[in-house]
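FW: tagging you since you asked about this chain on Friday. Here's the raw sequence from the shared folder, copied in full. Didn't touch anything.
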Amino acid sequence: MLPPLTLTLDTMDQCQALFGYNDRNIRIIEEELSVRIHLRDNALHITGDELNCNAASEVIYQLLELHDSGEMIDTSSVQYYIDMAFSGDMPSARALMNDVVAYTYRGKKIVNKTQGQREYTSSIRNNELTLAIGPAGTGKTYLAVALAVVAMKAKAVERLVLTRPAVEAGEKLGFLPGDMSQKVDPYLRPLYDALYDMLGADGYMRYTERGMIEVAPLAFMRGRTLSDAFIILDEAQNTTPEQMKMFLTRIGKNAKCVVTGDLTQIDLPQGRKSGLSDAVDVLTGIEGIGIVNLTRHDVVRNDLVQRIVQAYENRSKIQANE
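HL: got it, structure written out here
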């Protein structure tokens, strides 16, 4: 066996953050990369196959960069950089952390956690329309709302328009009690949560009262032209092709639009094609339109979610081959 590869840690704080609770971060690296990692004084000694030791060293380096940038090292971050080491496309943690998307109303930085997220936010910034497809937990909705609030505060747009298909109610909301906001509140909770993070409850109420934030079900977009607006269509996998065409043709002058969805969670009646899938087929290659595919590697929730997504993907592949 080759002599151990040695890395020096600068501080005890780095050591504690890297190892994690009950050493779980280091254990994941050891198990996934088939290496052994020992700490002596302030030095990490990595033993194992040369290729795996080098991969472990690069993973640890990026995790320390993450920590030094003020971000927490959690198990999902560990798994992400391990996956990237295997893919041969290791992103720079420092570059990701330095690309600030927005700030919450409490002053906390919102940054891209993965290369896929960085491609997504770059697409939103550089295109009039972005279609984002990916599993739950990849930050599709949250990052779109963050950039929408940035645009509104910078006066690049006059208002935000947030919508989604209320497929659970069959898009027939008239029978539900309350005003329009109360009718669609249950369907737009993720959007509200992100808005509260960006603006705070009081800030959200002020912008809403001034008519700068509008929440409406997709059915109410018909016949309108949305100009000088940042428009977000969430859960777009549950639109029909007809609804999607109707929505996209509402985009007016000086408008930016983001459409998000997860094609593995379609709630449409059996046999109906998703409008999101149809839009990807029709709009690929058109100037001014970005299409971003996020994957399980971009899941930034509990790392259990990554494993759940992977399990469902594996079953789908098996069924497709039968």
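FW: Residues 5-95 form a domain with the Ribosomal Protein S8; Chain: A, domain 1 fold (CATH 3.30.1370.10).
HL: agreed, and The CA atoms of residues 132 and 260 lie 5 Å apart.
FW: great, closing this out.
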